[in-house]
Design goal:
The structure is a single chain. Helix content is 43%, strand content 13%. It is α+β, with helices and mostly antiparallel strands. The strands form five sheets. The protein has a four-stranded mixed β-sheet with strand order 2-1-4-5, with no helix packed on it.
Length: 600
């Protein structure tokens, strides 16, 4: 076989140092990617690729480079890696992954996921959402959800990957709802920091039917994005809703239930804090010496707006300033087609009675109030006490009592396994507040309810016999509602009082997960109040990384505890046999070792 005499000239590198890729080579790469099996995809490589693009989008948005921002967003949305991650999110990670849209599809096989990745591209012909009504906790009202079809969910997840870093660079520091890396506890801590040195008047307000009344044209103007994204977002907003087999048009609002809906709602409400700061600069606040005005920075700091989704509070020491803020916000909301809800808008004071209103206010399930104390206890003469609100205490107890009533004929182990997640979740949520007394009261009420449950099961037995059967002494703890210790795996009821009260550390200023500080954000996950002690310990021992894919956990990841050696193969439920994984990594691992997927 003769050698060719044709000399091959190496392509010249471009200015940025990279070799040019020909069109046919790009097509070949994409064909090879589409031939992969879902389980063989290198997710670590894909996540790194997408996150690098998101960081660049974030930085471009911070410096105001619109041209680079639009180019990077287009690159990300055309990326095969971003499409795979979007499909994985809506088909494997999301809690509502098995909820069907109007097409009835609620689960996809690995082959169908790859097919969805290949056909994932902007399409103005979207299907309407399916209306689902869910009850509001503690009320008889129901909240409407709009469930998109699987294709639209994946496309929304893809667009969110591109839009969220842009807006995370713009969002105001005191906006906490539906944002990565921020939570209710950050908002509560921000309120505490604003009033711990001085008592203030409070405007506690709620926006009436915020998600249902957002003006579409005003939202699209504020979005101010590329034509492709704008057309697609408009199509989703105008898609309509199927309720009871009938199609209803959607002329306003963003459908709750879509992947991108919370981000769109935050964009619609963006600017409230800035408007309040503009007003704060005009305030007439003199220095303590009585000569001259304080700086505009001090004026802005004296007036605080803290928002979580459509709930917000405004804090200032002067009642006239707070009243004027209510008027300003009402006028500002008109432009978005919104208004304040009178029944949920209160004007009160943190320390003293104001009119017929008692001191303090409720926000995100917490009661925030100041109490007069002696100068020996506090220099200010008062203390700020944050506790679970009475309404949330009642809702929680009613739920526990309902579970006990529903398990009258069930074994003790079944009742404990049903109660423990409810008690643990509620206790962890309120572990940042002064909740010890309330925790103790709830444990006492639950004990009485369990006592009645036990006596109902054995009406002919003595109380002593019933107590010995259902209550045990474990270590230094007496009267523990637990199964017999003679069994192989004794199970005990979780006590509210066992939850440690730990002060929450608020997120730093306008920090964002897209700023690239992965160590800071992965460590915060282990310190989150709602992270169980076992999850926090595993996160710390594994340096905030998934032991399966070796990627740092991010704030939006769904975590699961896995047994290294499955129980079906003789593994024990002990710390050295536990590891923490992503949900999709857990699915992959359990498939490999042949064990049944069991979420812990």
């Amino acid at each position: 076989m003769q050698k060719s005499n044709t000399r091959q000239v190496a392509p010249k590198p471009t200015k940025n140092g990279f070799l040019p890729l020909k069109t046919n080579r790009i097509k070949k790469v994409r064909d090879n990617e589409s031939m992969l099996e879902w389980k063989h995809i290198n997710w670590r490589k894909l996540e790194r690729r997408v996150f690098k693009l998101q960081k660049r989008i974030y930085k471009a948005s911070r410096r105001g480079d619109v041209k680079a921002l639009r180019r990077l967003q287009k690159t990300l949305m055309n990326s095969w890696a971003a499409k795979c991650l979007s499909v994985r999110r809506v088909t494997q990670d999301n809690q509502g992954k098995k909820t069907a849209g109007v097409d009835g599809i609620k689960s996809l096989s690995p082959e169908a996921r790859l097919e969805l990745v290949d056909k994932l591209k902007p399409n103005s012909k979207v299907k309407p959402t399916r209306r689902v009504w869910i009850p509001k906790p503690g009320t008889d009202e129901k909240r409407p959800l709009g469930i998109p079809v699987m294709n639209d969910r994946a496309l929304q997840a893809l667009f969110k990957l591109a839009l969220e870093p842009e807006w995370e660079a713009r969002f105001e520091p005191n906006s906490y709802g539906f944002r990565p890396g921020r939570s209710c506890h950050d908002a509560i801590e921000a309120i505490f920091n604003a009033i711990k040195q001085k008592s203030k008047f409070v405007l506690d307000a709620d926006i009436a039917k915020c998600f249902d009344r957002i003006d579409h044209e005003a939202l699209l103007r504020k979005l101010n994005t590329s034509p492709t994204i704008r057309r697609q977002v408009r199509a989703w907003l105008k898609a309509g809703v199927m309720d009871g087999g009938q199609l209803f048009p959607t002329s306003e609002g963003t459908p709750q239930g879509g992947v991108i809906s919370p981000l769109l709602a935050n964009i619609a409400l963006h600017g409230m804090e800035e408007r309040i700061k503009q007003f704060a600069k005009t305030l007439d606040i003199k220095k303590s010496t009585g000569k001259g005005q304080v700086s505009w920075q001090v004026k802005c700091k004296s007036l605080t707006l803290i928002r979580y989704a459509d709930d917000f509070v405004i804090l200032h020491k002067d009642i006239t300033v707070v009243q004027r803020c209510r008027e300003i916000i009402s006028e500002w909301l008109i432009d978005m087609g919104l208004e304040l809800k009178p029944s949920k808008t209160r004007l009160t004071h943190t320390l003293n009675e104001y009119g017929s209103e008692k001191p303090g206010f409720n926000f995100l399930g917490f009661n925030i109030r100041q109490w007069n104390v002696s100068k020996y206890d506090s220099k200010q003469g008062f203390k700020t006490i944050i506790t679970p609100s009475k309404e949330k205490q009642k809702i929680h107890y009613d739920r526990v009592a309902s579970i006990i009533d529903d398990h009258k004929a069930a074994p003790q182990m079944a009742l404990i396994s049903r109660l423990n997640p409810v008690i643990t979740g509620w206790s962890n949520y309120y572990s940042i507040s002064a909740s010890k007394v309330i925790f103790s009261d709830l444990d006492s009420l639950i004990y009485l309810k369990l006592k009645a449950w036990a006596q109902h099961r054995h009406p002919k037995k003595s109380r002593g016999w019933v107590s010995k059967k259902y209550w045990q002494t474990i270590g230094d703890d007496n009267w523990v509602f637990a199964t017999s210790q003679e069994g192989k795996n004794p199970m005990r009821l979780r006590s509210h009082m066992k939850t440690k009260i730990i002060r929450h550390v608020k997120v730093e200023g306008d920090a964002s997960p897209y700023d690239g500080n992965l160590i800071y954000w992965s460590s915060r996950m282990g310190e989150h109040p709602e992270a169980t002690e076992r999850v926090a310990t595993l996160l710390k021992s594994h340096s905030g990384k998934c032991t399966h894919c070796r990627m740092y956990f991010r704030e939006s990841d769904v975590l699961e505890i896995d047994h290294i050696t499955p129980k079906s193969l003789g593994g024990k439920d002990e710390f050295k046999n536990l590891q923490i994984l992503h949900r999709h990594c857990h699915d992959e691992k359990t498939t490999e070792d042949g064990s049944v997927v069991k979420y812990t």
